[in-house]
Specification:
Structural class: mainly alpha
Distance between the termini: 39 Å
Radius of gyration: 19 Å
Shape: elongated
Strand content: 5-15%
Largest sheet: 2 strands, antiparallel
Helix content: 55-70%
Order of helices and strands: HHHEEHHH
Number of helices: 6
Strand order of the largest sheet: 1-2
């Protein structure tokens, strides 16, 4: 999976757990909403558990729940729990030192990419899972209004 798909699965899963916070959900229930595989969802949920964002209960009636209130979980925390390394790929190997562009490009891109990644972190850090739940509910109200 690419960077955005792991993050999207993590954020979707956290939002599902927050929406139905009065009971736990199984990885199969979350996977159904994602139209995805429960094994993939379990892997992502395992990373979220390691980060202290969710907890699991074994056995009958078990499943996944949030470890903290949804208003205290940011999208950046979800992203950081499942992604490794920078968002923007750097040069896979050093460019040619014989070329004026090659000599300078790594340094220039590093500054630009770091700034872009900081902006993304800041933006995702401002949005909580609770905010997404509120948007989901508002969207459903609008949908019902239009249908009715």
């Amino acid at each position: 999976m690419g960077v955005s798909s792991r993050s999207a699965v993590a954020i979707h899963s956290l939002t599902m757990l927050a929406r139905w916070g009065d009971h736990s959900l199984t990885s199969a229930e979350i996977a159904e909403s994602l139209a995805s595989n429960p094994v993939l969802v379990r892997r992502i949920l395992g990373s979220l558990r390691d980060a202290g964002l969710v907890r699991s209960t074994e056995g009958r009636g078990g499943g996944w729940t949030l470890a903290r209130p949804p208003r205290e979980i940011t999208l950046y925390e979800a992203y950081a729990a499942v992604e490794a390394g920078p968002v923007l790929s750097r040069h896979p190997h050093p460019p040619s030192a014989e070329c004026e562009v090659g000599r300078n490009m790594e340094r220039l891109l590093e500054v630009e990419f770091r700034e872009a990644e900081r902006a993304m972190e800041e933006r995702l850090g401002r949005t909580t899972i609770q905010h997404l739940v509120q948007q989901v509910l508002a969207g459903e109200q609008e949908r019902a209004h239009l249908a009715g």
